[in-house]
Amino acid sequence: MKHPPRRTRRLLVTAGAVGALTLGALASLPTTSAMAATGCSVTYTTNSWSGGFTASVTITNLGDAVSGWTLGFSFPDGGQRVTQGWSATWSQSGRAVTAQDLSWNGSLATGASTNIGFNGSFTGANPSPTSFTLNGTVCTGSTGPTTPPPSTPPPTTPPPGGQTPVAINGQLRVCGVNLCNQYGRPIQLRGMSSHGIQWFGNCYNSASLDALATDWRADLFRIAMYVQEQGYETDPTGFTNRVNNLVEEATRRGMYAMIDFHTLTPGDPMHNLERAKTFFATVSARHAAKNNVIYEITNEPNGVSWSTIKNYAEQVIPVIRANDPDAVIIVGTRAWSSLGVSEGSNHTEIVNNPVNASNIMYAFHFYAASHRDNYRAEVERAAARLPLFVTEFGTVDYTGDGGVDLASSTQWLDLLDRLKIGYANWTFSDKAEGSAALRPGTCNGSNYTGTSVLTASGAFMRERIRTPDNFPTS
Ligand code: IDC
């Protein structure tokens, strides 16, 4: 396959000479002024091919710390267009382009940089812009008040009010039957599960994860790493790296990252014990210093006794604890994480013989069109005695396909909200199956925001997830 020729260009914008001007401007300020120092530099780098380009823009704040920013610049050529941006909210009016911070990159300390970018198109030439403003201040490469040229957007927008879920809640821990935040208050995390990353890796990119964090306002991203079915066992190093990268992406956006060791077939977790030890030793070492990683050590044990699952858990948990002593760990339960119900048992087998470890929770999974009142009643009973996390559920039937059962899904989520049980919905993907939130083909494109890209399940889940969180801070 032949690629079109690429040109790389790099431009450092630090047009420094402001001396006399700056002095004049300073002289007109009241001497007691507490006005914040402003200043910035921007590098703008492009890779282009015929008619298209990618721009990478690094903003450095040289002034006092800011808690929100807007970058402005103008394209020199009338045919230049931003077609898809990332790590900022991009807009264009005529030649004037504006990029506004997202909640996770709005704060820039003095000297701090952030990188944003976009894909663009052009018709004639593709010259780089030569002047940039940050919050209305021209980026000259030094500090000092300057007057923005009239064509640039006005000093903008209040800093983003919202903090990210991780910024607010910090390191979580299990408290009684709940999950508590850094203030010791029970919280519920609401988010989405990936599909198998061996199949739908293309669905997890900057644009889609930005949408999950800022448009869906998800608290949580579950990373489903199948072990079998062309998953981890075929390339342990490769899958470990992919999981690590997705944890970093979730972290950058202030979301909790749940690492799901997605065992399914065979149902005996012991089949994967050595793989689990190797995998969790590596990922827990890598993320030990983070406060937003939750470990789910086996997805859906089935066809095995609770005591086998407990035995597995008591061998894997110490591997994680050796690196990351305070992380919350979730243990799958008997019969596809149904607390045993789907194989004729119930939660009391766990209550009578709990995993010998602290700071752990037990997984419960349901598919709303298949699992109804008797499962809800069991969750209600179990939740009084065990810390539960719904690490996976579908709005459809247990095959992952079929229509959305709105009534049952609503009953389920109302119950979980009331009990403050966290959840991750299966799946944030564009597979052609009822449980997928994104319409088929979405992951080939670059837009993941709004409802036009969503299936019935996706639209329902986005509405539930984006409602305001209740995260007490005292
Ligand atoms: C299903 C996917 C489907 C895929 C299959 C492969 O939706 O596209 O072909 O896995 O095994 C679970 C599992 C989860 C299942 C899901 C739906 O954790 O892997 O995903 N489900 O069947 N438990 C109950 C239902």
From TrEMBL:
Please list where the region (Disordered) is annotated: 133-167
Q: Which EC numbers characterise this protein's activity in its record?
A: 3.2.1.4
Note whether Membrane occurs among the keywords. no
Composition skew (Pro residues), residue ranges:
146-162
What Pfam families does UniProt report for this protein, alphabetically?
CBM_2, Cellulase
Q: Which residues form the CBM2 domain?
A: 33-142
InterPro entries the UniProt entry points to? CBD2 (IPR001919), CBM2/CBM3_carb-bd_dom_sf (IPR008965), CBM2_carb-bd_dom_sf (IPR012291), CBM2_CS (IPR018366), GH (IPR017853), Glyco_hydro_5 (IPR001547), Glyco_hydro_5_CS (IPR018087), TAT_signal (IPR006311)
Answer yes or no on keyword Transport: no
Q: Can you state which reaction this protein catalyses?
A: Endohydrolysis of (1->4)-beta-D-glucosidic linkages in cellulose, lichenin and cereal beta-D-glucans
Q: EC top class, in one word?
A: hydrolase
Q: Which domain of life is it from?
A: Bacteria
For this UniProt record, the keywords arranged alphabetically read as follows: Carbohydrate metabolism, Cellulose degradation, Glycosidase, Hydrolase, Polysaccharide degradation, Signal
Residues of the signal peptide = 1-36
The UniProt entry's sequence similarity note says: Belongs to the glycosyl hydrolase 5 (cellulase A) family.
- Descriptive protein name: Endoglucanase
- Give the originating organism: Micromonospora qiuiae
Q: What is the lineage of its organism?
A: Bacteria, Bacillati, Actinomycetota, Actinomycetes, Micromonosporales
